[in-house]
Design brief:
Blueprint lengths: L3 E3 L2 E3 L5 E7 L6 H12 L5 E7 L6 H8 L6 E5 L6 H11 L4 E4 L11 H9 L5 E8 L6 H18 L11 E4 H5 L11 H7 L3 E7 L13 H20 L10
Parallel strand pairs: 3-4, 3-6, 4-5, 7-9
Antiparallel strand pairs: 1-2, 6-8, 7-8
Helix pairs in contact: 5-8
Length: 251
């Protein structure tokens, strides 16, 4: 396809990478994060940025629309009803045009400078490795959130045997087709390594940077994470137990 050219920047209709960012009420974080994504990737890979606004109540959508004037890589998708992070990620992936997807949380705690590191890991990995998950080795959250995450990861790892130290990290790199083939449910983004492994693919955890939230407030607390997580964990364990895979050939 013919690339489109805006303000001296060539943007392909079929980029190599789509960066998907779900957001809800992050008006002060969108401009800094978009700028960091552009700085990390422009000139290194043919990319697009797909923001998914989960019907924010603040000026998030308006600020994203204003950024499009000077960021030709930026596309904006808007939910017509508030639907949560997993749905936003999935709709962003469905709207994406690249064969590989990088995801970032919209709060700015993930560092876009880590995306080239994930791409380098992909390039030297085996072809059947379809997910490269960020691993926050030096988390900048509160002590209570780190404690809760530590125990949740331990329980999840014991039940699902996914060999992943940190499934809650928002920065990930995965193949678009492999992701869209996974079973969809709310909060599925927390179980991507186990779901990818259930589908027969390998996954790798990659140490990444983690930062303090610069603006806005978290949309989760330890209690609602725990209550939802118990039900989801049992559901994913059931999916794994009921999984059946086989190679096929044309007869």
């Amino acid at each position: 396809m013919v690339p489109r050219i805006l303000r001296g920047t060539c943007v392909s209709e079929t980029p190599q990478l789509s960066v998907v960012v779900p957001v809800y009420n992050e008006e002060d974080n969108v401009a800094p994060l978009v700028g960091e994504i552009v700085a990390a990737l422009r000139g290194k890979v043919d990319f697009e940025i797909v923001y998914v606004d989960d019907l924010s109540k603040d000026a998030t959508l308006q600020r994203l629309q204003a950024l499009k004037a000077n960021t030709p890589e930026l596309r904006v998708v808007r939910h017509l009803s508030n639907s949560g992070q997993s749905t936003a990620v999935r709709n962003g992936v469905k709207a994406a045009r690249a064969p590989w997807i990088a995801t970032l949380d919209g709060d700015g705690q993930n560092d876009p400078a880590d995306i080239p590191k994930l791409l380098a890991e992909r390039d030297r990995a085996a072809p059947d490795t379809k997910l490269f998950a960020g691993w926050r080795v030096n988390r900048q959250d509160s002590g209570s959130k780190r404690w809760a995450s530590k125990w949740a990861n331990a329980i999840r790892s014991r039940m699902l045997q996914d060999a992943t130290p940190d499934t809650g990290c928002g920065i990930k790199l995965f193949e678009r087709i492999a992701f869209l083939d996974l079973p969809y449910f709310d909060h599925m983004h927390r179980y991507l390594p186990a779901l990818m492994q259930r589908a027969g693919w390998k996954t790798v955890s990659v140490p990444v940077n983690h930062r303090h939230r610069a603006s806005g407030v978290s949309k989760y607390n330890n209690l609602n994470r725990a209550l939802v997580g118990i039900r989801d964990l049992r559901g994913v364990a059931w999916l794994i137990a009921r999984s059946r895979r086989t190679a096929v050939e044309e007869a």
